[in-house]
Amino acid sequence: MAKPKLTRPDQIPELVESLLAELGEDPSRQGLKGTPSRVSRALRELTDGYDVSPADIVEGAVFDQDYDEMVLVKDIPFYSLCEHHMLPFFGSCHVGYLPKGKVLGLSKIPRIVGAFAHRLQLQERLTTEIAEAMNDAVAPRGVGVIVEARHLCMEMRGVQKPGGQLITSCMLGTFRKDARTRAEFLDLVRRP
Questions:
Q1: Structural domain count of the chain
Q2: pTM of this prediction exceeds 0.90
Q3: Catalytic residue among 14, 83, 124, 165, which?
Q4: Helix and strand tally (H, E) in the chain?
Q5: Is 94 one of the annotated active-site residues of the chain?
Q6: Same domain as 174, residue 137
Q7: Best exposed site among 89, 116, 122, 147 by fewest CB in 10 Å?
Q8: pLDDT per position in the chain (192 positions), as tens?
Q9: Catalytic pick from 11, 14, 84, 124?
Q10: Owning domain of residue 19
């Protein structure tokens, strides 16, 4: 679901200027003069995943291959913004699948992670979206995704507990139905 391209003037700088004033700042002081435009550019970059379709990412990178053992890309770094506070959360994603006659080009897996991470997100939804995109891309026998992340909305505000991690998983197909496959995936993710 692509976000429509901006067809009107960017209103974010004006809104940020109002926000700064609302917070008690002087938006015209030297250190804040360019802040509204910088915030706008940053937010556009941090949410550019709305403009990316997973189908477009994998186009031309699905290959016929008679390989039936697990494929795992682990420790994929990512960052995102939580949809509740628009504060960052960041960590690592591990994506595994059991091919069924097709494999995906290696660089496409981190790109899928990035496309979904660069949206306002819930970690639980991010995990599921990555797994479903992999499932749609190569129709494997199974997919496993684990996301481990620190959330600044928990560390900087609210309970203010630095260092805690949220770990989410989504298992599809064989990864959900077969305990041995799931155990192999989890063992490979845990290895240094």
A1: 2
A2: yes
A3: 83
A4: 8, 7
A5: no
A6: yes
A7: 122
A8: 455 565 667 899 999 999 999 999 999 999 999 999 999 999 999 999 999 999 999 999 999 999 999 999 999 999 999 999 999 999 999 999 999 999 999 999 999 999 999 999 999 999 999 999 999 999 999 999 999 999 999 999 999 999 999 999 999 999 999 999 999 999 999 999
A9: 84
A10: 12-46
